[in-house]
Structure formats: structure tokens, C-alpha cells
């Protein structure tokens, strides 16, 4: 019987020190645990590092504990540990949840793993550290959580926009509105995966 499980890792800078739009993935994951009826996050050791995790029968939700731009090695170790524990990668999927400047605040989209990172250093780091080619039976995917974009496109303005302290309203959207859409995208991914396994 096909029993799919998901390692869902949010990228961002560690909370609560860096409460910014760049950590939108972490905020969305906070809300996702409630939406899918899982326990609150607690600190455990995974991938040889202490990190906030919520484990359920289907989803293991993990907030990457590293700075955004060096997320890859941690994600790769956590994935390899999960594969080892499940004895097979065939029933395990990796999903990365990250912020997306090109989408409106709270707008959520399932993104193909091999789509360009579009300059997103956290996604680049993960893709550099972990090759899907080694796990051909495991779907790898990304879920992009929109954070909007400032009118000025220069690097300094964009950097300030993503790194400044998040507003209460922005946080509410990311933690209370976006998670239901993230859950829907996970259901979509599972449906695609099931149809591939059964065809």
C-alpha cells in the first residue's frame, strides 16, 4: 500500500531574532501545523542540528535553523536522515517552503523543483547541496509564499524590504491566511504523485 510522507522544510532566517518577510516560509509553516492538526513546534535534533519541528503521521514540518543563504547543507542532512529512518525514499517527498518577491503577499504557488531559483539564495543553496537525481522516486517540490515587492527595484531597496521587521498585518496574513493554501498545494502534490505511482 502506498503511504506517502513529506518532509516540509521552511527556509528563512532564524526566528524570533529575524522576524522579516524573508522568513515568510517559517511563518507559513507555523500556521500549517495548526491547519493539518499537528502538534506545536518543539526543538529536536535533526540533520545534526537543533531545529523547530512538528511531526505528524504524514508531514514532518521543519524550520531550517540556519541563515537563509546557507540552508542547503542542513536540508540535505535532514533529508538523508529521514530517508534512512524510512528505509526507502520511494514513499518520501521533500518540499521547500520559501518567500517569493514576484507574488502578492500571502499568494501561494506550487513550483516545479527544476524551475530557476530566480536569484533566491536559499533555494540556490538547497539545490547545490541536494540532487533530486539521486532520488528518482521521490518528488521534490517548492512552495512559494508571496511577500510582494517594493515599487523601487534597486538591490538596496529590495534588501531593506525583505529584511526589515515584519508588520503585525503581514505576519497575520502569512501565519493565518497562507497556511490553508500551503496545505492545499501539498494535497495537490500528493495527488500528482499518487497518479504517477499508480499509472
TrEMBL record:
Record GO terms (molecular function): peptidyl-tRNA hydrolase activity; tRNA binding
Matches recorded under PROSITE patterns: PEPT_TRNA_HYDROL_2
Alphabetized InterPro entries for the sequence: Pept_tRNA_hydro (IPR001328), Pept_tRNA_hydro_CS (IPR018171), Pept_tRNA_hydro_sf (IPR036416)
Keyword Hydrolase: yes
Leader peptide range in chain numbering: none
Class of the enzyme per the UniProt entry, highest EC level: hydrolase
Enzyme Commission number(s) from the entry: 3.1.1.29
Superkingdom of the organism of origin: Eukaryota
Keyword RNA-binding (UniProt): yes
Protein name from the UniProt record: peptidyl-tRNA hydrolase
